[in-house]
Amino acid sequence: MPRRARKAESRSRAVAAQPLPAREALEVADRLHSTAIHLLRRVRKQDVASGEGPARLSALSVLVFGGPKTLGELAAAEQVKPPTMSRIVAGLARSRLVVITADPQDARRMRIRPTARGVKLLQAGRERRIAYLASHLAGLSQQELAQIGESTHILSRLLQAWT
After folding, report:
1. Percentage helix, strand, coil for the chain under 3-state DSSP, each rounded to 5
2. CA spacing 20 to 30 A to 90: which of 27, 70, 126, 140?
3. What is the pLDDT of residues 136-150, one digit of tens each?
């Protein structure tokens, strides 16, 4: 049996074995997961215009929206090993998108922060992604657009409750 078919069968068995409310939540979670991945992949195509790769843009995003970080904090946030993050940060520094300075509390640690150029690059990329997505949302009916808008509020509330 092909791998995809085994996964689908396994997922179906997991869904069928759950009590009704949990089964419904699993089905919605499965569709939401798949949809979110496909949506992100499509809007991420706009990032090519930035000239930076996805790993660098993701790390830069953590710094722009989360503030300065140590290499270890940044690696943990991106779920990569410190040597991998070291290479990513070196590339960002070469592109003058981040500045690396000594940590004021511990000279052995380095703090990484975005430069104005890095912030501008990330903001421009976000604007491109949003414009691209909005151009596709514009083709929906007012009711569909309102439903998606309400869904984003519900998802935001759910995310705020996660610990």
Report:
1. 75, 5, 20
2. 126
3. 999 999 999 999 999
